[in-house]
Amino acid sequence: MQSGQQDPPANEQSASAGSGGGRPKGRSGLRWGAATLSYVVVVLALLVVVNVIGSKLTTTWDLTSTHSLTLSQASKNILAKLKQNVTIYAFEIPGTSTGRQVQTLLEQYKRYGNGHVSYQMVDPDANPALADHFKITTAGEIVVLAGQNTQTVQPSDLQSYDSAGNPVFNGEAAITNAILRAGTPVQLTVDFVTGNGEPDISQGRLPDAVQALKDQGYNVGSISLLTGSGVPANVSALIIASPQNDLSPVEIKVLQNYAAAGGHILFLLDPLVKPLTNLDNLLLSWGVTPQNDLVADASGTNHFQTDPFTLIPNYVASSITDPLQQANLPSVLPGAQGLTIGKPSAYTVTPILTTSSGTSGGQPTSWGITDVKNLQSTGGAYQAGDIKGPL
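^ thats the sequence. predicted structure below, dont judge the formating
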């Protein structure tokens, strides 16, 4: 998309998983890496980031719909909260199938826009003045105008591809994001922290997570904290994803200052990683301590298929999880460690995910495995010294 300012023409807690009993039936969840991390980022972390810094956009959304020409509830929620008028110009050649699809979809935006959304189908050949005004170069471009701000949707943005590689009309995500961007001219930035063995955002499947954030209207980049120069003022959130080495005292100080100034930080910490003492102490000062365990849940409903290490945790009511609960969207965590929650006076700690709390055969249905070195021999079954759930 391209953005700019134009006037129209005068006439215009860490986590869980489960399946009955006290002994895991599989260990497929032991295969972790960048692919797993990107999955967690896309499925859960993205929603957390969007919610935490999305107060400036007034909503949290998940732009998926089973019908390409009807709006998802998320888009309807966004339209219901519009505070200014939005005009959409679709520069389409009359009679094309894509043009008909776009018009059908724009009717939905108008219907649910509470009087704030209007649209106009424009033949660029019959109205070259309007096309020139918005610098239209290709038939099929869509311009979203909100106040003095515009966003241009390219024809390629209206398509996605199915598993067989066939193009599928998917105009909703592009148009809704254009409405959000036009209504929020100051673009927010999310930076991934580097320098401690984190996967590169351009490798593996992390680009999927990066693209998902960009699709929601965010700038995405990387940042090193080793210089000690602090976090730029335009960075709305930091993501520390799968560090393999401990953070230095310089980096810890930067994070402390950033958080004290109101910054937002999302930590995605792998299980089975060597102790990260400085990072653990930082989290402890904020009331959260990683347990350095591997969580298993065998409750029957809190794990994926037969793998007790791939958790489907219970949601705890919060502004982050409530939309997921209402939409009946589970979170899936392929490998997680538990968190111990303290009670520091300066902070309020709110868990958002928990494991099951039951027992089976006298043993807990969820537990944190502390002796991961002998995981092969124990099979992950609950042992003396493990941490009893719920976690």
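Confidence is low (pLDDT under 50) at residues 1-7, 9-66.
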